[in-house]
Amino acid sequence: MAAASNNQPLLEVRNLRVEFPTRRGTLLAVDDVSFDIAPGEVLGVVGESGAGKSLTGNAIIGLLEPPGRVAGGEIRLEGRRIDNLPYEEMRKIRGARIGAIFQDPLTSLNPLYSVGRQLIETIQTHMPLSASQAKARAIELLKEVGIPGAEMRIDHYPHQFSGGMRQRVVIALALCAGPRLIVADEPTTALDVSIQAQIIALLKRLCREHGTAVMLVTHDMGVIAETADRVAVMYAGRVAEIGPVREVVKHAKHPYTKGLMGSIPSLGVRTDRLTQIDGAMPRLTEIPPGCAFNPRCTFKGQRCLVERPNLMPAGATRAACWLHDSGGVGAPILKETVDA
Amino acid sequence: MPDGGADFVRIEGLKRHFDVSAPWLVRKLEGRPRQIVQAVDGIDIEIAKGETFSLVGESGCGKSTVARLVVGLYPPTAGRIQIDGNDMAARHSRSDMAALRRRMQMIFQDPFASLNPRWRVFDIIAEPIRAFGLSSGKADLEARVGALLRQVKLNPADGRKYPHEFSGGQRQRISIARALASEPEFLVCDEPTSALDVSVQAQILNLMVDLQRRLQLTYLFISHNLAVVYHISTRVGVMYLGRLVEVAPTDTLFRRPKHPYTRMLLDTIPDLEMTGRQRSPVGGEVPSPINPPSGCTFHPRCPFANDRCKAERPKALPIEGGTVACHAIEEGRLPIEDRTYALNT
Ligand SMILES: Nc1ncnc2c1ncn2[C@@H]1O[C@H](COP(=O)(O)OP(=O)(O)OP(=O)(O)O)[C@@H](O)[C@H]1O
Ligand SMILES: Nc1ncnc2c1ncn2[C@@H]1O[C@H](COP(=O)(O)OP(=O)(O)OP(=O)(O)O)[C@@H](O)[C@H]1O
Ligand code: SF4
Ligand code: SF4
Ligand SMILES: [Mg+2]
Ligand SMILES: [Mg+2]
Q1: What confidence tens digit (pLDDT) does each residue in B2-31 have?
Q2: Ligand 3 contact, A277 CB (< 6 A)
Q3: Is residue A47 assigned to a domain?
Q4: CATH fold of B4-89+215-330, please?
Q5: ipTM reported for the complex, 2 dp
Q6: How far is residue A180 from each of residues A41, B5, B41, B181, measured CA to CA in Å?
Q7: Does ligand 1 have an atom closer than 6 angstroms to the CB of A55?
Q8: Is residue A326 one of the residues assigned to a domain?
């Protein structure tokens, strides 16, 4: 739970837009995304593959790959605006106050150095420790993320680790400097459930004891259910629904969220086919007018084809869907328009 | 269903050890010993045609190493791998080898590292089709690549782009499309859907099942997501520190798990019902494959371990349609019970 003593959020994201200029026109990959994270809070971010989760995270840590750029909105960390800082200044903040765990572990690891060297260097940049103290701290961190035989493993190179072990080394690297905010992009995808539980316990302890805020991007609803306080659901570059984790998982209000929760495979009953939401998310160049989910939505009405819904109160969550507006979805759609 | 004939894949006594010692001079100067990782330490697997065999187990237990050995990316330290009667270690003529390679494909755990960043997606997927001469011309090639992209829920127009222009899950789907391009009979899938949201994951798994039924494909499937394994597998093998501790038909494994490690693994499944139940992480420290424990390597964490377990490596013994390597089960001092699962509805 949020251990906030004052009311100021640790992270504020307002109307964020991320664009890619291309020869074929500008792609709007993140479109008007807003959310806050309080100190000690974990915000889970879920959504369709390609929805813009990683780009949102990269925009916050100031590491969008060019030509991608923040084209609008504001990002504040502890009240201070960070989206318009010069590169050098942002680099310092990133090292000391924001811990980044990337979706691809190999972007954070240098294949030519042993993992120990990489950890020790990072620790020494941020803390006044001697080489042997830094090494002891590095071993301790590797143990915390569950690497067996950490004393021996510290001298090994990234390619000598398994997929899940590399992922844990990246987590250890992100925790080195004791950050205020952790942006974790799929930190547990390559991990078995047992190690996952250990990493989750570690993240929660940091939130509780140090008031660290976490933005946790993951596809794993089990991890979300156990870790997050609130969840944001993204679809086609926008937030489709946001609210307390229990409400979003058990009483979803947006049709996309409902479909997503219904697709989770369960144990106990083996079905012939897993439940899926039919169709695919539109490409960025082909986002339809109105609600971006309308081609796949079974509840849509005429209004959904022309007018785009913003987040609005929907039960205990906020959802971007006309079903929750007093005006409704508009006139029913005739068969011919559906086929067109 | 498996056709009961000769096994399509036959793995016998497979071992792979890695030398991870410091360089010789450093070792001598600092008096350090050699370090050998016993990543895969003697496993036997048989997979029938048309079957999905899944490997599960803790991170670092050797699953990816088995996958790489099976497709011939690493030579084994010991043991034999036969695929449809062809011994992978035997010398084959180049054309035999090419034919064998076409028949099996691998989807790698790391979708980032396995796609050439300088190639357009179209060429990445077209490469196996060209290499094995499967297409009759330019139009046919374009149609095939387009169809493959559509199957994995991407758009044929995406072929023009480079891998870095895609999200993590989109790249994973590109590598799935590439693996399917050469129309393989045997697919080794290492965490193929780990970067996908549950709905796209369901679409891809449904596609894999459809292809399997239509074309009698055989899968070796690796995933840490036990619910996915439950839905897709015919049989499951549980690995611990480079060894197979239990193999069983899927329903039996989940309903009547036998090996103490399998039981603990099933206890760690996350709770979606949000009942507040604490997941029990498998207790005890994970031992290192560099100095594995003696006897049964699970004994330091096993509540049923005794002196025999510390000294003697248990053999895989047949039981209820599968095999289990555990002294307590063999001696009958560990009862086998049915488990039930809370359904999330
Ligand atoms: N360098 C780039 N150039 C053009 N488009 C890009 C680039 N990087 C990302 N995109 C597009 O932006 C969209 C959002 O990408 P992002 O990586 O944020 O997705 P995601 O939600 O993290 O998905 P996943 O769950 O698959 O990782 C995708 O459609 C992707 O194709
Ligand atoms: N090329 C290598 N050199 C040295 N050691 C290696 C190499 N590849 C794997 N190992 C070691 O072998 C063991 C098994 O690794 P493997 O990648 O097979 O595990 P895994 O079961 O796939 O784990 P994960 O679930 O984390 O992907 C690990 O201890 C790993 O460090
Ligand atoms: S706004 Fe309309 S199309 Fe969009 S999700 Fe709601 S009902 Fe469906
Ligand atoms: S052989 Fe002994 S130590 Fe190993 S799993 Fe069985 S009871 Fe436990
Ligand atoms: Mg991503
Ligand atoms: Mg692996």
Answers
A1: 444 568 999 999 999 998 887 777 777 777
A2: no
A3: no
A4: Rossmann fold (3.40.50)
A5: 0.85
A6: 11, 60, 43, 46
A7: yes
A8: no
